[in-house]
Amino acid sequence: MPEAFVALGEEAARGTAESTTVGYIPVKNYNVAKPDYMAKKREEFRGEETALGPTTEERWGEKWDGLPLEIPFHTESGVAKGLIGSILKHFFGHVASSQNGATGQYRHMFSAVADPFDENALGAKALTLNMNHMLGLALKNHPHTGGRVKKLSFKQEPANPLMMTAEFCGQKRDAAGDPLASPTFPAANIRCDYNALTVRQGATVSRTGSAPDYTAITSNGTVVKPDSLSLELDFGLEDRQVLDGATSPGETSVKQLTGKLSMTFDYRDPSSGFSSVDELAAWIAAVSSTNFLLTWDTGTQAGTGDNHAFIVDLPACNRLGGNPEFSLIGRSRITLEWDFHYSPTTEYSVGMLLKNTASAV
User: How many domains does the chain have?
Assistant: First the structure.
């Protein structure tokens, strides 16, 4: 199989490839971004030759799009440990990092801001996606610069790692260069797997620190055991070219953060614990609101007494529609869905806390 791997770099100034300080990430799929050239044929009145066909085609600019990376989620990337967290930071726009003085591990709390590209947030920063693959018999690095994170989604299935799909767009693809040396990937014991997941609903969520920059989040709510779950996040990102003399997109805006949590269950009403029957009935009766806390605890220490972990806090979830699917030959199932809303208490609609040994992301 031809050698191929991906490394991320963070650009201090958008469009300037970062191929020195990089974090290596394992990916399930490997593709290069689709280039989109802003090319135009010359269409002017030039006598009879115009009727015979265009003679000139010019490129006025370029951008790239259509690059989703499906990543088995680890709490760190290889070498530059914090760059897996940089994907989350470049989606939300805000992160607060701190170290637990008692246990030693680092904590990174991500939440959305109104304008992720404000000078007080990401500013001119962007991501370089270093796509390394073979050109014939030679391994080459193909840097895709000016990367923005358009969408994030997470999917957890039984007997599988947590899969994060990050969808990117960006400014330009640099010429192929020397491959990145000695790719080193994160260890398997800091991967977030199905057996590391606990889902809790309702009850009191304990959040340590001040909103939205919490340093710990726990819950004693009802344990929920779905067959599978997925979480989708979209900020409505628009990356466009403006009249600034540049030949690639130079203006990025976002709309409103939206998303959906989906979980599939057997359609049943147990004597205790989570009831999919009751959940459906509550929604039919009225607007149904709840909260969820998803915690992946890897069991691998990031410091003395605390582990590498990934926590997703959804403080205000609104139940959406979805009917059970009855089966003659097996269990009836139902897929329950929730969207989520901004909570004045937490100051976010979705917050993510990453615990690892990286001092910054």
Answer: 1
Q: Establish if 53 belongs to a structural domain.
A: no
342, 316 Cβ separation under 8 angstroms: yes
Q: CB burial class (10 A; 0-12, 13-18, 19+) of residue 9?
A: buried
Q: Does residue 42 belong to any structural domain of this protein? A: no
pTM above 0.85, yes or no: yes
Asked, for residue 44, whether it belongs to a domain, the answer is no
- 66-94 pLDDT, tens digit per residue, is 889 999 999 999 999 999 999 999 999 99
pLDDT at 5 over 70: yes
> Residue 232 is part of which domain span?
4-32+63-356
Q: Is residue 243 situated within a structural domain? A: yes
* Residue owning tokens 């779905």: 226
